[in-house]
Amino acid sequence: MSSHEPGFIRKYIFSTDHKVIGIQYALTSLAFLFVGLMLMLMMRWQLANPGQPVPVVGGALESLLGEPAGEGKISADLYNSFGAMHGTIMIFLGVVPLVFGAFANYLVPLQVGAADMAFPKLNMLSYFLYLIGGIIMLVSFFVPGGAAQAGWTSYPPLATIIPTDGQIYWLVAMVFLITSSLLGSINIIVTVIQLRVPGLAWMRLPFFVWSEFVTAFLLLLAFPPMEAGAVLQLMDRLAGTSFYMPHGLILSGQPATGLSGGGSPLLWQHLFWFLGHPEVYVLILPAMGIVTEVIANNTRKPIWGYRALVGSALAIGFLSMVVWAHHMYVTGMGTGISMFFQTTTTIISIPSVIIMTCLMLSLWGGSIRFSVPMMFAIAFLPMFGIGGLTGLPLAFTMSDVALHDSYYIIGHFHYVVAPGTIFAVFAGIYYWFPKVTGRHMNQSLGYLHFWGSLVCMNLIFFPMLFQGLGGMGRRMSDGGYIYSAAHPSNEGAIGSLSDAVMQLNGVIAWSALALAAFQLPFIFNFFYSAFAGRRVESDNPWQATTLEWQTPTPPPHGNFAQEMFVYREPYAYSLCHSAQAETPTPESSAAVGEFVDFETQNQSIAAAATDELLVNQVSPA
Amino acid sequence: MKIPYTTEIREDTGLYNAKVGMWLFLASEAMLFGALFSAYVFLRIGAWEGEWPHGLLNIPIGAFNTLVLITSSLTVAMSWTSLKMGDLQRYRRFQFVTLICAAAFLGIKGWEYFDKFSHYEIWLNDPLTSKEYPQLAGHSADGDQPVSSVIGHIEGIGPFQTLASLQESGASAVEIHPDAFHYRLSARQQAERRKAERSLGAEGAREAAEEHASVRIDVSRIARMSAFVPRHGTFFATYFTLTGLHALHVLGGALMFAFILWPGARMWRDDPERYTNSVEVTGLFWHFVDLVWIFLFPVIYLL
Prior knowledge:
heterodimer, A: mainly alpha, two-stranded antiparallel ribbon, 19 helices, B: alpha+beta, Four Helix Bundle (Hemerythrin (Met), subunit A), 2 domains, five-stranded antiparallel beta sheet, 60% helix, elongated
């Protein structure tokens, strides 16, 4: 520790402390989640009431964004912007920085017993690159033509020919975000490999560390191809190249001029989805890690099948790199290639199912504490389950062709990310809040937040599955009205969207509003408890075993007050001395020295328990 | 607070932190360039029959640049070894050579770029035949085939011109000195023509000079005109993007070396081991960048 206290700016803004950076990441990404939520609310209003001025914020929209929001209405162009930016902000600026930037930054060094990340300055740089990327994204709303409009996937040629500079901002911001996550992932991997505290063997790592470790590798290896793709798209935009522009491109009925042609739009799809699919596991693996920690702690027993969990996480990591083209079944791929990607896609569901099974079996026979984090963690299981199971029909070309680009897809991946990952994030926030701030969050508000969110999430996303099966496309700015039976020109037309399907738009809009309302208790709880919540009585209020709870609260710069040595598995809840690590004392060192071989040979809990008994027998001497 | 293994080696991995970090970074870089090479393969396979250019790049210059980079990799390795042996002076001399090599590489690359920027292709509304214009003999496999585009140097015109800028300047015609060969001829056809030319001896040389006499083309006959810039076509788009990104890496590596060599040298007094490590880690990056070029050169220049 340094001899003199650093000033406010060095301590809270340009800090190299992984915990401060983690909190910076958390606050920034939660703010972006809020922005994404607001965009979603306005879009849902537009879908339920096409062409009606947005209530309350309509005037503000018009004065901020001008022409595209004329009379406070959301024009089709503006809707496209909102759609593209909702996806981009939620994924790249909200959830990924939250689960990877915030949680991994704060917790991984603590859980491996390190004083800080391996490269603290790069860590700080990583946060500021992320912040710059985020600001560029937000600024793009206000450039002429508005923000990017070609969806969060930015498919060319559309993305390249749309006349807005927003797309350039989008690409440049993505390069910043990719660089940021590159630095973050290197930092996490090196920290886990190099800075584990003595005694913390690989198979003693908490599952959260494993999940972030695999996630870091995904970010490290899957993001660069997309960065390459973004550079090529920038070249198309700025230097007039034709990487993604084919020969004979027709735009609005006219042959495109000034282009050399010879490119391929499919190239972008390959480069994008090479990131895009691993990205899904970047979103879900840390969530599984968080849920594992919370479940182990609240069932008061070891996680069932720890080794299976680790193996599955690694398998997911490898397999997620070879499934990307299942997003491209309708591009006219050959059947051979489709067969390959169908096979890998179905195989990757196996490790996911193993993880879910392990977590569910872990509940069996536990004395479950239904604390707020545990409620979110339990809800994660069926919610992610629905998300995963609705994905199966999309893994096969024959059913995917029908469902592609419909609301079914929207329902499916939102089940994975929204009530899936974001519930896990809430579980994590409620769970680690006492360690970070030294105060508890309010329980009653927490339960209110949980039940409200659970009901609303399902009321939003389950109807989408029906809408998709009913034939509603995903990117229509009028909520499908033009294809509905109610539209005058569709009278008697077969296959038009039924009234029931259309009315679901209203259900979803009201539920979305209610969901936003149920976040208010959380926001209030978060800030109120941080300053005035009930103080924790001990450094380990949940009686947890992993290393982060053996620090002072909140952990000081440098984290651990004494030297640590890890003696046990991460979730040794069945033992009387369950904490994973202790400060070595002559007695405990001797005891462990005696039995350490025994322990490495027998990883089972029974063996550990015997060991512990022996330790206890030896200790008094 | 002290972070362990910044210089000392961790027993179970045998590495210090920065080295692990650099290897991971290089893995990421390999994915970046791997994706770009894959994009190249994808676009080249998808190119229309006979569309992919051949023989547009200056192979001797490219080969020389390869040599320059390999030399610099050698001097980096030597400089690190010198530091390991505690010889700061020797290290400085070797690193100085490295920086000169880096500058030479970038200078040569810049010259190559500029040469391309002032080299033009003109696509014609109605094709010419080399029967009418013997200067264009190298532009088609045999004299009967129509020539729909002419490549070469244009008299009295700077780099980056286009048809639009030509029309703006009010010029009514351009004088283009056609290249000896058109890039649409396959590498084999080009080699055959070259061989035939050589076998003709002095007479052939005179004929060739005649062939290189300029062609006058009215601006009204031009459908499209482009210098050899990224927007010229997929080949140059790929060439400039890949080599440009590589050149940025060379520049970055050179700047890091220069920083370690001059302002960063104070560390040598305080912590010589860490100083040596920083050279080693940056050297890893440098060798990687060198390796990328060793792939780039044959893929883009030779194939």
